[in-house]
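As noted in the main text, all predictions were made from sequence alone. Below is one such record, for S-locus glycoprotein.
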Amino acid sequence: MIAGDGNLKLTNDMQGKNTVWSTEVAVQSPNNLVAVLLDVGNLVLKDNSSGDILWESFSNPGDTFLPGMKIGINLKTGEKRFLISSKSNENPSPGSFVGGVVAESAPIIEAFIWKNGNHSYWRSGQWNGVKFIGIPQMNAVYLNGMGLLSNSQEGTWYFTLNDFNNSLIRFLYVSPLGSLQIINWDEGSNDWNVGLEVPDNECDIYGACGPNGICNKDKSPICKCWQGFEPKSYQQWNRGNWTDGCVRRIELLCDKDHNKPDGFLKLSGVKLPDLSQYHKPREITEEGTEESCRFWCLNNCSCMAYGFVTGIGCMFWTGDLMDVQSFSYGGEDLFIRVAYAELGKKKKNRSKVIFPVAASSTFIIVCTFLVYGFLRWRVANRKGKTREALQESDNFANAINPLRETPKEKAGTNMIKQKDSLIFEFKDGKLHNGKEIAVKRLSSHSGQGMEEFKNEIVLISKLQHRNLVRLLGCCVEGEEKLLIYEYMPNKSLDSFLFDFGLARTFQKTQDLGNTHRVVGTLGYMPPEYIMGGRFSEKSDVFSFGVLVLEIVSGERISGFQNDEHLNLLSYAWRSWCEDRVVDLIDKGLEEDSICLVEVKRCVHVGLLCVQENPADRPNMPIVILQLNGGTELPQPKQPAFVFQSSRDDSSHGQGSNSDCKKCSINEVTFSATEAR
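Prediction:
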């Protein structure tokens, strides 16, 4: 409610006496105020006459971060915009976790989640202008994720969430348990799913291994001290309490002994330390290089470590290194300063490893030669047995009688590799007499034995048809199994038999995804794939619907021409709406052979499959039931890519469902038995 003082208030009684929450803004003229919920989700309190906004929810976020909101800090005014978790899913009052941005070392920015006030709970790592380098999963998520709006003169650093013109529906959420989640809307399942959640393991918790310790979730125990350091308290460390961290074993000499200079230990693929000890020297004004960072750090005794990140430049640390984590992928390089004596230990350890490795390598090489010799003997011993096994079958002997015109001494030459698979490979070439042949070579990994090979030859040799490729001969020697076919000068039909355009775009186990590259057969690709790069199981349903309409009309969608309609879908839609499905039927079919009821059902199902909204299309099991007459058919909505000529625009320019008001739904089903 809007109270008498002009503030928007939330009360727990009808009289408005017990205020639970209020906007608490100073209002000069409270009589002309309205509260409006905008389409982007922003609740505003504004003056209805002037349009001035007095208060808005986007400037006072709760636990949710929507596209259009800004989370960050203004260093000049001190304004900070944070996300605050709720106590529970049932209790929306402020909880224990706060998410926000730290920019004390601007332009180096990090995101934090704090627990119970100012205790660091999770840290994102530094922002490199593209992503947070402490979140390896952000490599994929950032394509549709966050961006930084900064103004160094005004001292503002705000993060925003991209919505890409509403093509993706998503938001950020701080849960009551302290996790930061990116929630995406899945059109296929009509449900929300979690695209990214941090922290998601023990090492993501801030300072899990204490100062100068490194955490690796794939190791046991997860914490260890890097070279040159040891646990501060062995007793606590061995108990699994790593919060005390590690300390140096040997003091740094720095410039005390020029003959024994300090060096650097390189840690690859890690989350760089917290920037609370970050230092950027005045001498390095630009981004610099890794060599310039190393030179400055080595000549400054206060420098304990350095790193170089593209997009940020040189970073230095002058104290304990906190919150370092090792990643299985991603991460950056961290160079830690260690004493000269520690570098010597590393070299000694290398020499101790060289001899065992060399001895092991020699042993492996000798064993390899022995195994190779045994396999050669085994193959040679099998050659004689293979031919005898082929002659044992009478059926095989009869099958190869007409194939003996291709003797072994006329083997093919000029073999060219054509096609590979895990089971076989195809090559073509010529015999010595000039005849072109195609050779199918079975792979040793196919799992096909001699008995299966004989059965294949017997079966193929009995199939003689003008539309089938003839088997000319076979060859078996040792593990080699070859089938010789007649050559097809006009190539295979696979160049004319095409898929729906998406079969090569995603993996067999993938049912939903995004792509930024349009690949497919024009006319069969659904609108959401062409315009947004999104595909799912409903994409092939669209392509199947186009194929059904092609079969009924006898027209290819890419070559369809009509005076009134620009494509096949427009023509099919208009024919259906005007109850003139007969005009759509292939003119080459005889009228006596057409079952109009079944044709109308096919057109009906085809139009259901090519509807513009993927959610309106049926899935393939439903399509099968609909084609078989096993279910009632709903009224189809307008298909995608419906275009009319200009002379139809006056009467049918909208192309909406209203064009089909005079159509009736055929609820009568017929079943016919047809032998296969």
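The two ends are 71 Å apart (CA to CA). The chain has a mean pLDDT of 79. These features were considered when defining construct boundaries for the mutagenesis experiments described in Section 2.9.
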